[in-house]
Amino acid sequence: MTLLPRSTPEAEGIPSSALLDFLREADAQLDALHSVMVVRHGRVVAEGWWKPYSAEHPHLMFSVSKSFTSIAVGLAIAERRLTLDDLVVDLLPDDLPTEITPRLATLAVRHLLTMTTGHATDTVSLAEESHGENWARAILAQPLDFTPGTHYVYNSGASYLLSAILQRLTGERLLHYLTPRLFEPLTIASASWQSCPRGIDAGGWGLSITTEDLATFGQLLLQRGEWDGRQLVSAEWIDEATSAQVDTSATDHDLDGRQGYGFQFWRNRLAGYRADGAFGQFCIVLPAQDAVVVLTSALPVAQLVLDLVWQHLLPAFGDSPLPPIGGPLSGSLGDALAALTLPTIAGAITSPTAHRVAGIRFSFDDPKISSVTLEPGVLTITREGREDRGTPLAFGYGKWMESADARVRASGAWVSPDTLVIRAHNIGTPFSRTYTLAFTTNALSIDITQNVAFGDLPHTHAVSTGRG
Fold it and tell me: In the chain, which end has fewer C-beta atoms inside a 10 angstrom radius, N or C?
């Protein structure tokens, strides 16, 4: 497991009060952060996890994965396996459509890295939807509306193609290729990567690592590829990959998304660059400040937490150590970090209804729910006679309880005499579900909502048809 050296904020030139202000504002405005780690001069000066999230659990990083793919491409270029100008038609000859259009014939590695493939829209849906097992062929068969290199559009399918190319050239999954070259030297031991039906890592998404793993990656970037006296990654590649290669100012991205795009890295509005994943997964690298800020989150609008970083953290990086803090403030930052928690449901521990319905099986005529049974501290939902994923769902009152599925932590409360609300977090992801059970004399209605999603938020509403 990765373990960076530790220090105090003041020793590294940061007032603890600035970190406290960030935490307070994040809780007041967002209520959706999962972890934060601030590294200054190579030392961790603040770290915290909002319960039920914790340090040891890898977190799904979404498009932060792209930045690791970029580093893999840089390593492969250094090993002379490919170049930026190599053509995709030569690198993936078995995945090509029947007709090679003039535009497709000019598509190069550089265009995949910069999201200037010529596609009019993101091709990720071609990978995720039902287009057979060969995602690369589905993506390459999509018409190119623009000449490659002339038009930027965010395109996770392009990142998948990079992974497919690397696997064909190296004979290894992207994860396995990076393990001896990057992960092992950085002592990142818990990495996993989602792969396609053909066993090719997704490249543009699907990497899970811990908060400190990501901070270590950021420190490597800050050190321009050098680690423990070894040059793991070319400094020139990191400089090039993290520079603005494409103008994104005219896009509909959030403000920090309009500052330019590199080779699978984003430029920041006020300082540095970042690896950036959906719902607020960030590795923010600040070379001028010699700092790294890592965040994991479940934010519908991720720009909000970047704004807090620029407001509270960026101005706090001073040039010299500060006097150690004595008195009451000296322990307040540590106390605040240790006390971080996502909000539990406010309400009563029990209700007369809880005793009345305990153990009763409520039946549903619904494709998503077959039955619901509530017992003290346990909710069981079945679907078509099988236990649905995540259930039986154990939940605590005013605290987070580990469920039968060890990835899930849940808490609940009776918000009225007849209504129980349970919130369950999948601690390997940003996703949580809220279950609202409203009981009447002989029936139960249940609503299931999700906190964040790509597109419309999932919502299930069903009313029981009877008992037993």
Answer: C
